[in-house]
């Protein structure tokens, strides 16, 4: 199983950060996985942002710290999932990771990480 | 939110010696229905994503050397490296996956003395 991230490394303040995580070797629609976004910065450490998962229907959970600004969407046609974070500020500057979690287990597969800088 | 606190923040150990990292959660991460602690340990090297070493507090992920072990239950946990190797230099994180939001400790930097 591999996760391949893509997306821009520079976003202007107040604009939308958009990243995609392409899945190979598993399915975004799997009933035995959840697909997560995590970010890492010196000031905030490792911070879980949210997840999407399918259990007969789609579910999403988001961290309170970004709720209202975040959307995680699955794309079954491309077998990938995406992160959108609106109204970004310099505090959203971080390395962003996608990661898989199987039920009751830890994050076992991670993307390579994308350094996103919020700056004009 | 469950707060995860690691100690120490940094640690220097001689090659071949034991390294011990502690993690405390602000509430229990023991799931009573299956008696499993939803606590994981990760290793992160520069420029790489975290790599899971231990889950359920004491179960080694496939392929992880047996010098890595985890122990503890409830709110207090320990990661032990029995005989430090040069390739173990990294930052180590604990994580609770008992409830959302999933939260991580602040990290412990492990170096060679």
What value does the Rg of chain B take, in angstroms? Answer: 13 Å
N-to-C terminal Cα separation of chain B, in Å? 36 Å
Whole-number average pLDDT of chain A? 96
Residue-averaged pLDDT of chain B: 97
In short:
The complex is a heterodimer of chains A (about 120) and B (about 110). Chain A is mainly β and about 120 residues long. Helix content of chain A is about 0%, strand content about 55%.
Commentary on this structure:
The complex is a heterodimer of chains A (120) and B (113). With 120 residues, chain A is mainly beta. Chain A is globular and about 40 Å long. Chain A has strands at 2-6, 10-11, 17-24, 34-41, 45-54, 58-62, 70-75, 80-85, 94-101, 107-110, 114-118. Chain A contains no helices and 11 strands. In chain A, the strands form 2 sheets. In chain A, strands 2, 4, 5, 6, 9, 10 and 11 form a 7-stranded mixed beta sheet that branches. A 4-stranded antiparallel beta sheet of chain A has the order 1-3-8-7, with no helix packed on it. With 113 residues, chain B is mainly β. Helices cover 0% and strands 51% of the residues of chain B. Chain B has no helices and 13 strands. In chain B, the strands form 3 sheets. In chain B, strands 2, 6, 7, 8, 11, 12 and 13 form a 7-stranded mixed beta sheet that branches. A 4-stranded antiparallel beta sheet of chain B has the order 1-3-10-9, with no helix packed on it. The radius of gyration of chain B is 13 Å and the shape is globular. The relative contact order of chain B is 0.34. The mean pLDDT of chain B is 97.
């Amino acid at each position: 199983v591999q996760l391949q991230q893509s997306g821009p490394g520079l976003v202007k303040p107040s604009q939308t950060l958009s990243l995609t995580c392409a899945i190979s070797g598993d399915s975004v629609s799997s009933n035995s996985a959840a697909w997560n976004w995590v970010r890492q910065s010196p000031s905030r450490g490792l911070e879980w942002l949210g997840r999407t998962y399918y259990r007969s229907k789609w579910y999403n959970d988001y961290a309170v710290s970004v709720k209202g600004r975040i959307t995680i969407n699955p794309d079954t046609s491309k077998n990938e999932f995406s992160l959108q974070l609106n109204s970004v500020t310099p505090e959203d500057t971080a390395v962003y990771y996608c990661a898989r979690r199987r039920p009751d287990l830890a994050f076992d597969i991670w993307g390579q990480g994308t350094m996103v800088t919020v700056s004009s | 939110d469950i707060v995860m606190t690691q100690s120490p923040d940094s640690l220097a150990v001689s090659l071949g010696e034991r390294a011990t990292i502690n993690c405390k959660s602000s509430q229990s991460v023991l799931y009573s229905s299956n008696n499993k602690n939803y606590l994981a340990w990760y290793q992160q090297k520069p420029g790489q994503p975290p790599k899971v070493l231990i889950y359920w507090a004491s179960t080694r992920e496939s392929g992880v050397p047996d010098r890595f072990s985890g122990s503890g239950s409830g709110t207090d946990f320990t990661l032990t490296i029995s005989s430090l190797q040069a390739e173990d230099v990294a930052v180590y994180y604990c994580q609770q996956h008992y409830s959302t939001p999933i939260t991580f400790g602040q990290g412990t930097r492990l170096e060679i003395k």
